[in-house]
Amino acid sequence: MKPGIKDVAKVAGVSPTTVSRVLNNRGYISEETRKKVYDAMEEINYYPNEIARALLNNRTYFVGVIVPTVTSPFHGEVVEQIEYYLSQKNYKMLLCNSKNQMDTEKAYIDTVSYTHLTLPTKRIVEIQGDAETIKKKKTTTKTKKK
After folding, report:
1. How far is residue 32 from each of residues 5, 16, 23, 24, 94, measured CA to CA in Å?
2. How many CB atoms lie within 10 A of CB 78?
3. pLDDT of 15-67, one tens digit each?
4. Are 65 and 95 in contact (CB under 8 A)?
5. CB-based contact 64:94 (threshold 8 Å)
6. How far is CA 109 from the centre of its chain?
7. In angstroms, what CA-CA distances link 24 with 5, 7, 61, 76, 93?
């Protein structure tokens, strides 16, 4: 059975509320107590259930990224950079490969929108085309700005 915060609390010698406050970074927690909680988590191999936390907080911290293909080196680099940026903001990435199929892409967009797997602004960004096409679009966009 997977350990829970009560198990972490028992091993750390603190209350479950304190464990929750450490996990959610809420309220004042001394560095000593924080270390005890993290040490206990490691000792019993506890990790928070991201899905349960998302349901509780009504926020997933997951971002859906839809690419036309995962075999293109260009898209691989773009995905790597997106994932790096997201990790800096404590988000996780859900990668969807549409295989250049419009129906598949639409289904992914519907799924991502329905499950709220987008940034709080609900922005969905499509990555389409090769590097040269995107470079041209980027240049065109820059020149239109005043």
Report:
1. 18, 16, 15, 17, 35
2. 16
3. 999 999 998 888 899 999 999 999 999 999 998 887 777 767 777 778 888 88
4. yes
5. yes
6. 16
7. 12, 17, 13, 32, 20
**Cβ-based neighbours of 76, under 8 Å, separated by 6 or more:** 70
Whole-prediction pTM value? 0.52
- 19, 12 in Cβ contact below 8 A? yes
Number of other residues whose CB lies within 10 A of the CB of residue 46: 20
**What distance in Å separates the CA atoms of residue 40 and residue 34, rounded to the nearest whole number?**
10
Q: Can you name the residues that pair with 96 across neighbouring β-strands?
A: 66
Residue corresponding to tokens 């970074």: 25
- Cβ contacts of 70 within 8 Å, gap of 6 or more: 76, 79, 95, 97
C-alpha to C-alpha distance for 66 and 4, rounded to whole angstroms: 34
> In whole angstroms, what is the distance from residue 19 CA to residue 6 CA?
8
